[in-house]
Amino acid sequence: MNFNLTEEHCIFQEAIRDFAQNEIAPLVDEAEETNVFPKQLFKKMGELGFLCPRYPIELGGGGGDKVMDIIMAEELNKVNAGIAACLMVQGGLSTQPIYCYGSEQQKQRFLIPAIKGEKIAAFALTEPDSGSDAASIKTRAQRDGNDYILNGTKIFTTNGPICDFATVAAYTDPTKRGVGINLFIVEKGTPGFSVSRKLDKVGNRSIETGELVFEDCRVPAENMIGEKEGGGFDMIADTLISGRITYGGRCTGTAQAAYELTIQYAKERIQFGKPIIKFQATRFKLAEMATNIDIMRSYTYRVAWMYDQGKNVRKESSMVKLFCAETLQTILAHCMQIHGGYGYMMEYPIQRYWRDGRLFTITEGTSEIQRLVIANETLK
Fold it and tell me: How sure is the predictor about 38, in pLDDT bands with cuts at 50, 70 and 90?
């Protein structure tokens, strides 16, 4: 098996790494402090084809594959997990259903502007009373002539407060659990669609996360993704498979950055007359981190390659997210321990990676849900 990246992948890796370091890194401190995302990044990345690297060039994308998507996830998360999340929702959860199942009109009106960074997209699935059990959502879309009337509330929506449109999950037939769900594209400014509040979070503070409310929100039927009522749950499941592989890249990037910060600190911190990197207890922790990061990266690339080959990776995508997210927690704990008291101070950046990484076992399918998927797929 060939585990080397292609020349195209290597060129892209260098380009996105330079962009992340030169264009994104200088914006991190202000974004974290103000909880305001630097929206100019959407247009800037869109113009370079970085925003949605997997979509075809003719649509404005990078013309790449899932491996390229993972490369971007890793490089962006090395710099900042929150900014990375906002950008990656654009090329994943919020637009993939339109790309895979949307009409030509929907692609022209929403997908292409999103790929170019001219419109910001959000994905609205989770509700106050519906998290891991996505089939229990209560948002309802009732047909009324040439429109659907949406009523419901969505929470924890990345890009919610700043989006130009949201891809929203709602029941068209609530008598059919899961099966009766559809996805709708709801534009900003549509009467009845509002952001009720912007959420304050422990970590990932540069993400603008919101609660969205739909009150008798009239959406044209042509904004429903798919040609008939029902089938939205399968669209969501397909999209989440891709997203879970992406989390392998997100976790790996976060782990790599935390590891490098810790090595630097261990070289500079003097105790008992020598740098703490000289102590066996520290060196063993760092060796274990290096091993696990390499495994995280290798397995993520493998499953991304399988996905590109059109293989069924429902089980493997959950394995990627479970292993990488849980392993990241151990790595970050070791990094914080090596930093000691200084790691707990806000002036040291390691605490941000620690706070940001804690979310990864929860969002887009908890570790418990990943274990359930793996068990169901393995023990059929």
Answer: very high
- Give the pTM: 0.94
- Cβ proximity of 315 and 216 under 8 Å: no
The residue with tokens 């070791």 is 334
H helix intervals, 91-148: 96-101, 104-106, 112-115
| Residue-level pLDDT at 380 | 75
The active-site residue, picked from 32, 75, 211, 364, is 364
pLDDT at residue 51 is higher than 90: yes
Look up the CATH number of the domain holding residue 73.
1.10.540.10
SS3 state of residue 285: helix
State yes or no: pLDDT of 1 exceeds 80.
no
pLDDT given at position 137: 96
* Owner of token pair 């990266």: 297
Work out how many domains the chain is built from and give that number.
Answer: 3
Provide Rg for the chain, Cα atoms.
21
Does residue 74 carry a catalytic annotation?
A: no
364 and 261 in one domain? yes
Q: Are residues 241 and 358 in the same domain?
A: yes
Locate 360 and state its tokens: 């990864």
Tell me the residue range of the domain where 106 lies: 7-115
